[in-house]
Fold Ribosomal RNA large subunit methyltransferase H.
Amino acid sequence: MNISIISIGKLKEKYLKQGIEEYLKRLTAYAKVDIIELPDEKAPEVLSENEMEQVKKKEGERILAKISPDAHVIALAIEGKMKTSEQLADRIDHLATYGKSKIVFVIGGSLGLSSDVMSRADESLSFSKMTFPHQLMRLILVEQVYRAFRIIRGEPYHK
């Protein structure tokens, strides 16, 4: 299984980098996992609705350029479907069983994902109704992917 995590914005915090590196190291036993970090669009702090859409559109174009046509795309979005860890594990297992060996998780920038990216997504996933920094979502996501593989294999960890 090949899993890519496409994320907008540079990760600067050392503690987040260390956590992500630890889970990526653990994941090597289960899948090939790549993190593709794309630059965020520079914009002023206060934006009009139109300017926000333009920023999301430009970031979305960068994201879509990195997604292969045969990939199953899961967009992380607050309006997405919430799942338990076991349900995420079942979903990953189901995709692998039925020939979807490329899964791409997409984490947008601070303004979210463009409508073009959401249209390309095969499904959307929400981790909470709360808003999290997109840098922190990378760590949460890699931990949940690791947890999913442990659940799929029936290995202890997920309690």
